[in-house]
Design goal:
The protein has helices spanning 20-48, 55-74, 84-108. It has 109 residues and is an all-alpha fold.
Length: 109
């Protein structure tokens, strides 16, 4: 009978592929992106067309701002770990630009 040798070191887990968490994030981002785009369309159609009561502006603004905040928090987690900080900065910059543009459109109405 031979003496037991040292136990092999555990292998590190390779996370190069799409994990279940990232797939869930893609679905959640898509579900938040659709109302975001709908809100942008409502605000643009209200600014360019007839919206006598302003309901499209109210609903569109809500649909741009609330899902937009959630998208800013979700989208960077889709990126690899080394790019998440840059992705968070770019997502936040894009959200601020869209919010300012929507605000500028609403100021002109």
């Amino acid at each position: 009978m031979s003496a037991p040798g040292p136990e092999p070191a555990p292998r590190p887990v390779d996370h190069r592929g799409w994990t279940a968490g990232r797939i869930v994030l893609v679905v959640a981002s898509t579900l938040m992106g659709l109302p975001f785009l709908l809100g942008l369309w409502l605000v643009l159609s209200s600014a360019l067309g007839d919206d006598p009561h302003g309901y499209l502006v109210l609903v569109g603004t809500f649909l741009v701002l609330v899902p937009g905040i959630l998208l800013v928090r979700l989208v960077p987690w889709l990126l690899p770990e080394r790019l998440r900080l840059r992705g968070c900065g770019l997502a936040l910059l894009g959200y601020v630009l869209v919010a300012v543009l929507v605000g500028a459109m609403l100021a002109d109405l």
